[in-house]
Prior knowledge:
About 45% of the residues lie in helices and about 15% in strands.
Amino acid sequence: MATILPENQINQELNSSVHQFFRNQKLGTLLNQSNIRKESGLAPVMLVQFIFSLVLQKKNLYRTLESGREPEAPAKDAVYRLLNNATYNWRKFLLLLSQNVITQKFLPLVSENRERVLILDDSLYSRARSKSIEMLALVHDHTTGKFFRGFRMLTLGWSDGNTFLPLAFSLLSSEKQSNRFQEINPTIDKRTVGYKRRKEAVKKSTEALFDLLDDINPLQLCARTLFFDSWFAFPKVIKRVVSEYPLEVVRMLKRMHRVYYTYEGQKYTLTQLYQVVRKKRGRAKILASVVVSLALDDNEKEIRARIVFVRDRNRSKNWLAILSTDTNLPEEEIVRLYGKRWDIECFFKVAKSHLALGKEFQCRSYDAMVAHTTIVFTRYIMLALRTREAQDPRTIGQLFFLCCDELEDIRFAEAILLVLDCLKASLTEEPILSEEMVQSVLDRVFDNFPAFLKRAFHQPENQFPSGLSA
């Protein structure tokens, strides 16, 4: 039967976990490197830790300050000064934190054969009841097909198939001035990083995604593939990604009348291409696969891609198309890899439903929304790290790998020795072969063993067949 702990004890344990996360990941140093520094009063790391813990303790800022139960709580003005500062580089802070967690915690746990990927997608950042928020606009929600007041939260993340971590994001307004309710605050200094983020917010999403890619280093994160949805399914986007970044592209395709793919010297739309290619018989899940040409890169070299047509499991008579610029990948592998894109959808659900994304503060400043979203993403990083440590036994360190590898080698060596013993016993029973001839055969077999088995035979626990020396 589970024990119900008092609320004070639960909060103390939570504060201990948060403090340990801030200390182990050196968030104070990362804030300082991101130009988030103390100007007066409390240090920024203390303010961030206070905001960070509110939702985890099921509290909000107003009730916490009004109740007076926390004498060490900061003043409301100190919190809003932190959030509204246009010189703080919150994107750099989030990127530094994610890179540290990935390189120090996750990459040592993932084999080189396992695919590490980048995932790009957007989600609705709703402010439906607001009117005076800076750069508020009517944005299209792909899920419902309707327009809402708010922003499009374009997010770039990293995943190894088990854990997703956000790397960078941009709160996009509308590039059309007629769709915007408010414009950029004219008092913002144009030299600040906050102004640059505002200018980025009025770009098209197909242009803003390259601003996010420019800030990261895919090689440092060991990522070789970029995933994104059909809303970014344009050949010119793929051409730029493949030409400028060390990344392959896997994406879902959208049926568009003005986008063509070259196949056997002819140009086809996606629907026409499906009608032309040869289909597999029966109820196969993968209906067809074809290699097409997308465009020419800057060196006049043809950019080729493989399009895999798969059956829509929701509508059996319908089909979906997945594109991969790595034409050497098998069809099944392309479909399997694209399944990793779902990790970012789970991330959006957790951030909105449980971490109070867009609901905790009713700020009107664009800087405050960027700062609060960064803190929400930091909460998710801590939860993702704790989940991985609780579920993955390899997080106890390199000792696990050394012990497991050594044990597996010894067990395999013992099995081989048992086989050799049985073989020697069988051969010596025959009057045709003498014991010296049997031993000579076993010695020749041992000489052909791989090196790791020979090393395992040198272990004192392993007893060799009589006469067989290592």
